Fold this sequence. Notes:
The chain is mainly alpha-helical and about 300 residues long. It is built from eleven helices and no strands. The chain has helices at about 10-30, 35-55, 60, 65-100, 105-115, 125-145, 155-175, 180-200, 205-240, 245-270, 275-295.
Amino acid sequence: MAFRLEAGETLAVGLGRATAEELRRAHGALVAEADPEAGVHEARKSLKKVRAILQLSRAPLGKRHFRAEDRRLRDMSRQLAQQRDASVRVETLDALIAKLDGGGPARLRRASRRRLVPQRRRPDDARVRAEIAEALEEVRPGIEGALFLAGFEAVRPGLARTYRKGRKRMRKALESPSAAAFHEWRKQVKYLWYHVRLFGRSWPETLGSLADELHLLSDYLGDSHDFDLLESGLRDEGSKDPLFDPAPLLNALDEARTARRAAAIDLGRRLYAEDPEGFTARVETYWRAWRERGRPGG
């Protein structure tokens, strides 16, 4: 099923179902052998969705339980990120080169790819994927069995918190536009995007459009993060070899990243224009109206 609450489902049933589906999807992606890189990418997306559900259910779970389960999933995702980041550097390099006039200096292109491509494969990658797949089987009962909650009042604090944190992270990125600040903002945008997707069927025309805009904002910030990863890789290689000068690529990279961040800020200011309580109340109104329509005799 799609990552959303379905008609006739209570929040407890819907969130429990979505959690189970994403955990199974993550496990399946990690044990698939056809395309390990794609599997890691899909598994990380599913883990983020489960963490978004935990964020939404933070209040009924309790601080201790939430932190324990969220930390376990976060650590798994970080281990997989090491594999994914190496691929992202190469993909971002190729995309950047394609946009340069003439593709940039041929010698620099070859040197950059020669240095970054080997990082995509490490001897222990398969072992790490297998270990995380096994760990997912162990954590599933604890996470799936924890989402016993009441109505919207149980998730209201989590939804408001996600929106509020996104606004704060945006302001920090505006005040101190560092790679870390934009990356932290992106995390909260992702959580909010997943939350809006879950409730999307309660008013598809409005929440569907909002989800699309949040996805676009996430893409802008994701591109910015990819450029940060590529920059760190190129600078690292440049520090190892004085004959390797990535300056032309770094200049083009910085220009592209600046454009992405500017677009993100422009869109973010509009998406985070509401206060958290007003945003949460609006989503709750849509949800309750949708639930009332679906009841017998309603």
